[in-house]
Design goal:
The protein is an alpha+beta fold. It folds into two domains: about 30 residues, no CATH class; about 50 residues, no CATH class. It contains one helix and five strands. The strands form two sheets. The chain has a three-stranded antiparallel β-sheet with strand order 3-4-5, with no helix packed on it. Strands 1-2 form a two-stranded parallel ribbon. A hairpin with a 2-residue loop joins strand 4 and strand 5.
């Protein structure tokens, strides 16, 4: 079986991208992401996540001890499904 195509080393020019081809590679595409998450000390349910240059925060509703300043982890999961 062939190894998956390295998704981090594919062309980004329109017409040359994997998504522009009529069929995806039969062996699949492989990508790696390092995601870091942490609980913000002293902030109850506030969590911070980073991936590359991006940073997101997550919180919970007041009824379970959060401050509702940011989306809940389950809200992020639901959004990810839509993307």
């Amino acid at each position: 079986m062939e190894k998956p195509v390295d998704g981090t080393n594919t062309p980004s020019e329109v017409g040359q991208r994997v998504i522009d081809k009529p069929e995806l590679p039969t062996q699949g595409i492989s990508t790696d992401n390092e995601v870091y998450t942490e609980v913000v000390a002293g902030e109850m349910h506030l969590k911070r996540g980073t991936v590359g240059k991006f940073e997101v925060f997550s919180d919970e509703a007041p009824r379970i001890g959060g401050t509702d300043k940011f989306p809940s982890p389950m809200s992020y999961m639901a959004m990810a499904t839509g993307f």
